[in-house]
Amino acid sequence: MSYINKFDVIGFQETKTDSLDSINLENFTLFFKHRKHVARKKSGGLCIAIRNDLLPFISVIETDCNLVLWFTFLKKITKAGDILYRVVYLPPENSSYAPDDPFTLLQNEIDSHTKMFEKICLFGDFNCRTKYLQEYVFTDPEMFHEMQLDVFCNELNQYRYLFDQSYISYTRKSLDNSVNNYGY
User: Fold this and answer.
1) Is the dihedral of CA 119, 114, 74, 31 positive or negative?
2) CB within 8 Å of 182: residues ≥ 6 apart
3) Among 127, 148, 165, where does a domain finish?
4) Is the same domain home to 95 and 143?
5) What is the pLDDT of residues 49-100, one digit of tens each?
6) Could you tell me which residues are beta bridge partners of residue 87?
7) C-alpha dist (Å) from residue 121 to 88, 106, 110, 118, 134
8) Single pTM value for the model
């Protein structure tokens, strides 16, 4: 509890909880999204623990997608506008409860909320095995020009400048020893 009390909001993945579980954390209110029963044992699941004194500034948003649990921090407390957060748990690829295309489901969830929120943050367990894959994508100026996103392309190219500096490495330093389709 001394470690947990250092935080205001905590996202838990793979909670392995169902509606019969009763969990209490002192000073926190818990919001769950239980994994649907498709396996012989409990698996997956999401939880957000929110410090009780922040509850007036946070709203949990219910959706049908069992891969995510959404909540917002209202601009009254962020000073940066309303921010939408999403705790994510993607089941490992090829598991019995992994959806066919989890990233399309996640994208659809994002698309359904981007009209209301300018800032969105995703965190959690994506089960992406990346080994030494690149952590970045260099932009194709022609593609951005065709999509009339020249300003966005210019901003990304400014970030590219950081990689061209000798003190920032292009090489990922990951403890993963393999790559999977989610990583790609």
Assistant:
1) negative
2) 90, 93, 102, 103, 126, 127, 128, 129
3) 127
4) no
5) 999 999 998 989 888 888 899 998 877 777 777 888 989 999 899 888 888 8
6) 69, 123
7) 10, 12, 10, 10, 21
8) 0.74
